[in-house]
C-alpha cells in the first residue's frame, strides 16, 4: 500500500459504511447504523433531504418509492417525492421490509435521530446533502440541526464530521456558513480546476471507476480549504479486489456497503 494518507491518523484508508452497513441492513436506517457499529466501523455515510413540512430526513432517493411501502400506504400520491410528504406521513412508512422482512417496521429516520444514533455509538459522520436544488436553504438548516445536536463543537468538528455534496454550490455554501466544518465535493473535477475547488473543500470524492493513481496524487498535491492536503474518499467499493486497487492509489478513505469486506482487504 501507499504511504500514509491519514483521514484518521492511520496509514490505511479509513472505511466508511455507505448509507450505514447497507449490504446487511436497510440503507439509511438506524438499523444500518447499528450494523456498522456491530462490525466495528466508526464512519457512517448518509443522505439528507427535506419533507413537505420542512423537516430533515435521511433517505437516498428523492422519491420514497424504492425503499419504503409508500405505494401501498399512499397509493394516489405518485411519484411519491420526499418533498411532497409531511414528516408525520413519512413516519408511518415501513423502510425495512423491502430489504428483508426481518427489518419490518424500520422507519425513515429524521436527521436528529440518525445523528443521535451515530453519537450513541461514538461513530463519525459523513453527511451528504442530497438534491440541494430541491431544497433551498438546506445547507443552513443541516448545520442548525448539527449544531443543536452538539456536532459543531470541538469534540466533533475537524475529525468526526464531514459534509459532502455533488453540488459544488452546496459545498461552498456549507464552507461559507461554517468554515470550521470539513467538506467534501463528490465528483471528479479536472485537475486544471482543482485549485478553485480547494478554496471551499477539504476533499475530492470520486466514483472509484473514474479513479487512477495519477488523479489521486494530483488531488493530494493541493492544499484544501483548511490548508491541509486535499483528501480523496472513493465510492462505492464493495469487493476486495477493488478495495485493494484504490488503496494502492493512496486514497484516504473507502466508502462501501460491505465495510467488513473492505476492512479485511485493506486492513483499515
Ligand atoms: O458517499 C458517496 C456516495 O454515497 C455518493 O453516491 O448515490 O450513493 O449517494 P450515492
Ligand atoms: Ca450518498
TrEMBL record:
Hydrolase among keywords: yes
InterPro entries cross-referenced by the UniProt entry: GP_PDE_dom, PLC-like_Pdiesterase_TIM-brl
UniProt keyword annotations, A-Z: Hydrolase
Pfam family, one: GDPD
Signal peptide location: none
Example GO molecular function: hydrolase activity
Domain GP-PDE: residue ranges: 13-266
Protein name: Hydrolase
Amino acid at each position: 500500500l501507499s504511504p500514509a494518507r491519514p483521514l484518521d491518523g492511520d496509514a490505511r484508508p479509513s472505511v466508511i459504511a455507505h448509507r450505514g452497513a447497507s449490504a446487511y441492513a436497510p440503507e439509511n436506517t438506524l438499523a444500518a447504523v447499528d450494523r456498522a457499529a456491530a462490525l466495528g466501523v466508526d464512519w457512517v455515510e448518509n443522505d439528507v433531504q427535506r419533507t413537505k413540512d420542512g423537516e430533515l430526513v435521511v433517505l437516498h432517493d428523492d422519491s420514497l418509492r424504492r425503499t419504503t411501502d409508500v405505494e401501498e400506504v399512499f397509493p394516489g400520491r405518485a411519484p411519491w417525492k420526499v418533498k411532497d410528504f409531511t414528516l408525520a406521513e413519512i413516519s408511518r412508512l415501513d423502510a425495512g421490509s423491502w430489504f428483508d422482512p426481518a427489518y419490518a417496521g424500520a422507519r425513515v429516520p429524521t436527521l436528529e435521530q440518525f445523528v443521535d444514533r451515530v453519537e450513541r455509538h461514538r461513530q463519525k459522520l459523513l453527511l451528504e446533502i442530497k438534491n440541494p436544488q430541491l431544497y433551498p436553504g438546506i445547507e443552513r438548516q443541516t448545520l442548525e440541526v448539527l449544531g443543536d445536536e452538539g456536532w459543531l463543537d470541538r469534540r466533533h468538528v475537524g475529525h468526526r464530521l464531514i459534509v459532502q455534496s455533488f453540488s459544488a454550490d452546496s459545498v461552498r455554501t456549507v464552507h461559507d456558513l461554517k468554515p470550521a466544518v470539513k467538506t467534501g465535493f463528490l465528483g471528479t473535477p479536472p485537475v486544471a480546476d482543482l485549485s478553485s475547488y480547494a478554496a471551499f473543500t477539504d476533499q475530492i470524492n470520486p466514483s472509484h471507476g473514474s479513479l487512477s493513481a495519477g488523479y489521486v496524487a494530483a488531488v493530494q498535491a493541493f492544499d484544501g480549504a483548511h490548508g491541509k492536503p486535499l483528501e480523496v474518499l472513493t465510492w462505492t467499493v464493495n469487493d476486495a479486489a477493488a478495495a485493494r486497487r484504490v488503496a494502492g492509489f493512496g486514497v484516504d478513505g473507502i466508502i462501501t456497503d460491505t465495510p467488513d469486506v473492505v476492512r479485511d482487504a485493506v486492513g483499515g
